[in-house]
Specification:
By secondary structure, the protein is an alpha/beta fold. The chain has 2 domains: 112 residues, Aspartate Aminotransferase, domain 1; 222 residues, Type I PLP-dependent aspartate aminotransferase-like (Major domain) (Aspartate Aminotransferase, domain 2, 3-Layer(aba) Sandwich). It is 39% helix and 14% strand. The strands form 3 sheets. Strands 2-8-7-6-5-3-4 form a 7-stranded mixed beta sheet, with helices on both faces. Strands 9-10-13-12 form a 4-stranded antiparallel beta sheet, covered by helices on one side. Strands 1-11 form a two-stranded parallel sheet. Strand 5, helix 8 and strand 6 form a beta-alpha-beta unit. Helix 4 runs parallel beside helix 10. It starts with 6 loop residues before the first helix and ends in a 6-residue tail after the last helix. The mean pLDDT is 95. Bound molecules: pyridoxal-5'-phosphate (PLP). The site of pyridoxal-5'-phosphate has 13 residues, from helix 5.
Amino acid sequence: MIPEVDTLSQALATIRPAVRQGKPYAVGAPPEAPIKLNQNESPWDLPEPLKRELLEEFLALPFNRYPAEHPERLRQALADFLDWTPEGIIVGNGSNELAFTVGLAVIDEGTSVVLPRPMFSLYEMIVRLHGGRVHPVPPRADLHFDVAGLLAAIRQQQPALVILTSPNNPTGRAMTLADIAAVVEVAPGLVLIDEAYVEFADGTGARPLLDRYPHVLLLRTFSKAFGLAGLRLGYLVGHPDVVRELYKARIPFMVDRLAETVALTLLRNLELVQQRIAEIKAGVQWLYRELSALPDVDPIPSQANFVIFRTPQEPGALLARLAKEGILIRNMSGYPELQGFVRVNAGRAEENRAFMAALKKALAGDETL
Ligand SMILES: Cc1ncc(COP(=O)(O)O)c(C=O)c1O
C-alpha cells in the first residue's frame, strides 16, 4: 500500500530544487516496433554464431562474484584500439553514465559550463542537476555550431567545462578538427567531446588532440557503431592524471562481466563492425538523397547514423501516421532551434525504403495510412 500521509510533502521537500525542477529523460515511444528508426541504434544484432560463442563464455563466468573494479582486459583492448594508455581510460555503464561522472567531478553550485546548441539534451540536464550555470551558444543558420560565438563565450565566461558533441546529435553536423582545436586552445578548463557517432564521420575525430592537450576528454560509446546499446558500455579517454581524479567520482563496479566479454569479442571482430558502418553510411547517404528530392523537405547533411529534416507536416501528426505503419522516428521540436524537424536513423536497406514509402504517402496526405 502506498501511504497517503502528511509526511509525504516533507519527504519530497528533501529532494534538491535542481532535481525537483527538472524533467526525467524520456524517449516517449515504445521500446519495440517493427521498424524502429528513432533512437540511432544499430539495426543489426550480433550474428547468431557469435552470440552462441558468447553464451559458452558466459557459462564460465561466475555471476556471484563482483567483476574487477576496472574491466582491465577491456581497458587494455581499448588502449590498443586507440593507441593510448589504459590508465587514461574509464569504461562505464554507457557513456551517459560517464557524462554524469564528469558532471559530479567538475560541477558545483554556480560552476560555468559553455555549450553550443542545439546539443544532446542530457548535457544541459546534467549541468543543471549539479547546480551549474549553462552558457548556451546558438547555432549558425545552417545548424553548424557557431565556433566564433563559442570562442567568445569561452573567453568571457572562463568556464570550468566546455562540452562539444561531434558529430552532433540532434543535427548530424560535425566540427572540423581545426575548429575543435581552436576551442581547446582557448578553454581554461576541461573540454568534454562526445564522439558517440565518430565512427560514421569522415576523418579521425578529436583523438589527435589527446596527444597535445591534457584538458581534453573524449567520450565514446559501444551503443551506436558497435551495436551494443542494450548492454550499456561507453568509455572516457583523457590524460591519466585527469582520469585518475575522475575515477574518484565514478560509481563502483560500473561494468558487468557480460558486457565486458561481449565488447572484447567485438574488438576482435572489427571487420564486422567496419562492414556495418559502411552499410549505415550508405543508408544515410540514400536517405539524404531521397529526402532532398521531396518538395518542402529540408534534410541537413549528416556525419552521423541519422538525418534530420524539416517537414511541411506538423511533426507530431507525421509521427503518428508513420507509427500506424509500424515505423518509429523522432520528433525534434523539443529543441527550440529545431521546430518542425524530425529525425530518422538509417536502418537496414529495406527499412529505409519502407520509411521513405510511408513518408511519401503521409506527405501526400494519403488517408489510407
Ligand atoms: C550525443 C550522444 N551521446 C551519447 C549517447 C548515448 O550513449 P550511451 O548509450 O553510451 O549511454 C547518445 C545516444 O543517443 C548520443 O546521442
